[in-house]
């Protein structure tokens, strides 16, 4: 049920949320069911019936109206009105049923919106953190390449054992490769800064 959007009729909304309302007066509990001393818990489902709404004396074990019906599978919260030609007349009970189902649906959607907002904020933070780590990694790579090139240049100028010891053509190729690596790395860093900035 959670995380799934479905189109349900009024009776199905009530059947899927038995602990959210009184099955007799259709009062919506809104996550605040009556005190155990003021309710009867159905022994077959998770519904709670007001003590004042239950029949006197209540049967033991107690069954709510939907569960105590001769055919629970075909039970309906609405009253069939033969005088309406097979239709249904909106009386006080029908209005209470519809209002209760609407409140349950509204509460369910509010919870779904809150969960979706939390998940979206978490994903946004994770994405920002990943971009930051990628940018820092590229900056470290660029810094290491720059330091390596500086050291190589110093070795060449000081007559060390760097690329100056290579033949002329090989040294030129080596220096060109180093410059190309620096340019590529700097381009990657600039692209990351542009995207994350």
UniProtKB/TrEMBL annotation:
Listed GO MF terms: zinc ion binding
Keywords for the protein's UniProt record, in alphabetical order: Metal-binding, Zinc, Zinc-finger
Presence of keyword Zinc: yes
Highest taxon of source: Eukaryota
PANTHER family named in the record: PHD FINGER FAMILY PROTEIN (PTHR34451), PHD-TYPE DOMAIN-CONTAINING PROTEIN (PTHR34451:SF15)
Protein name: Zinc finger PHD-type domain-containing protein
Organism (species): Acer yangbiense
Lineage: Eukaryota, Viridiplantae, Streptophyta, Embryophyta, Tracheophyta
């Amino acid at each position: 049920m959670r995380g799934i959007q479905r189109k349900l009729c009024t009776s199905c909304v009530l059947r899927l949320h038995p602990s959210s309302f009184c099955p007799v007066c259709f009062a919506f509990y809104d996550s605040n069911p009556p005190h155990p001393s003021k309710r009867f818990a159905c022994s077959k489902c998770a519904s709670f019936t007001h003590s004042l709404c239950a029949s006197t004396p209540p049967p033991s074990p107690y069954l709510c109206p939907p569960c105590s019906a001769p055919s629970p599978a075909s039970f309906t919260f609405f009253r069939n009105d033969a005088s309406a030609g097979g239709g249904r007349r909106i009386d006080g009970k029908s209005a209470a049923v519809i209002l209760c189902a609407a409140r349950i649906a509204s509460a369910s959607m509010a919870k779904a919106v809150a969960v979706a907002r939390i998940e979206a904020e978490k994903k946004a933070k994770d994405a920002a953190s990943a971009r930051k780590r990628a940018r820092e990694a590229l900056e470290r790579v660029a810094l290491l390449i720059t330091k390596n090139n500086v050291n190589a240049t110093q070795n060449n100028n000081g007559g060390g054992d760097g690329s100056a010891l290579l033949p002329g053509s090989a040294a030129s190729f080596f220096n060109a490769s180093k410059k190309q690596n620096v340019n590529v790395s700097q381009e990657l860093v600039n692209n990351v800064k542009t995207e994350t900035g």
